[in-house]
């Protein structure tokens, strides 16, 4: 990803049928008002019930601006190591890349099928200081009744509602070594909303555009 180029980026799910991705590449506009933008399929977009896949375009500047706000909140530094288990073709994983890019910090990708035990081992092996997960992944980790590695100092949780009960249980895992459990409210309800708030931090996705593909 060239964050400062005028190129229009289209990030597609590699697990989608090739024909679907080829259609998206041919239909989504590039350049012009979409210069320096990234096209992403909205969370949960499928071809269920014959519905067309919905895409949104987010400006690179807006993504970097939001990443800067998150970095500020987490007091990120270049020595940080992100362990990422979220897909890079969704805003969650892309956000991790943007944050790391700004701070020149390291990103370790946890790939393959989600496995909480394997992820926990990856936390230890990578000496990760920061992580980004969704509530279901956090639940799986909490269910293991393990203690967070000493290197881990903050976990960003997004992509869904985080219940009070899960928050309390997670404290035993994450706060055991004074790591911070931070619920990123920008991912609740609509990850791509124009106004995104994170606790007391507020920023806006400039030049937010949505697009529903015309193919079925």
Strand order of the largest sheet: 5-4-6-7-8
Radius of gyration: 18 Å
Number of domains: 2
| Proportion of residues in extended strands | 15-25%
Main features:
alpha/beta, globular, 216 residues, Rossmann fold, 32% helix
What does this structure look like?
This protein has 216 residues and is α/β, with parallel strands linked by helices. The chain has 2 domains: 9-60 and 204-212, no CATH class; 71-202, 3-Layer(aba) Sandwich (Rossmann fold), CATH 3.40.50.980. The chain has helices at 18-27, 60-74, 91-103, 116-126, 135-143, 164-174; strands at 9-11, 37-41, 54-59, 81-84, 106-109, 130-133, 154-157, 180-183, 195-198, 201-204, 209-212. The strands form 3 sheets. The chain has a 5-stranded parallel beta sheet with strand order 5-4-6-7-8, with helices on both faces. Helix 2 (60-74) crosses helix 3 (91-103). The radius of gyration is 18 Å and the shape is globular.
Write the layout of secondary structure elements.
Layout: E1 9-11, H1 18-27, E2 37-41, E3 54-59, H2 60-74, E4 81-84, H3 91-103, E5 106-109, H4 116-126, E6 130-133, H5 135-143, E7 154-157, H6 164-174, E8 180-183, E9 195-198, E10 201-204, E11 209-212
Helix pairs in contact: 2-3, 5-6
Quick summary of this structure?
The protein is α/β, with parallel strands linked by helices. It contains six helices and eleven strands. β7, α6 and β8 (180-183) form a beta-alpha-beta unit.
């Amino acid at each position: 990803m060239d964050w400062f180029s005028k190129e229009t980026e289209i990030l597609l799910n590699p697990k989608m049928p090739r024909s679907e991705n080829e259609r998206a590449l041919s239909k989504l506009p590039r350049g012009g008002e979409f210069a320096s933008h990234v096209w992403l399929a909205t969370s949960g977009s499928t071809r269920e019930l014959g519905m067309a896949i919905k895409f949104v375009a987010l400006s690179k500047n807006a993504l970097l601006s939001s990443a800067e706000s998150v970095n500020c909140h987490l007091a990120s530094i270049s020595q940080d190591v992100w362990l990422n288990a979220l897909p890079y073709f969704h805003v969650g994983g892309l956000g991790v890349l943007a944050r790391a890019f700004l701070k020149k910090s390291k990103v370790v990708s946890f790939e393959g099928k989600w496995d909480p035990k394997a992820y926990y081992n990856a936390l230890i092996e990578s000496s990760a200081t920061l992580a980004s997960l969704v509530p279901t992944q956090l639940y799986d980790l909490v269910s293991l009744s393990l203690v967070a590695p000493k290197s881990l100092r903050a976990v960003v949780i997004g992509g869904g509602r985080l219940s009070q009960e899960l928050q309390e249980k997670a404290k035993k895992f994450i706060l055991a070594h004074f790591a911070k459990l931070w619920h990123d409210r920008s991912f609740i309800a609509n990850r791509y909303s124009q106004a995104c708030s994170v606790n007391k931090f507020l920023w806006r996705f400039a030049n937010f555009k949505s697009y529903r593909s015309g193919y079925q």
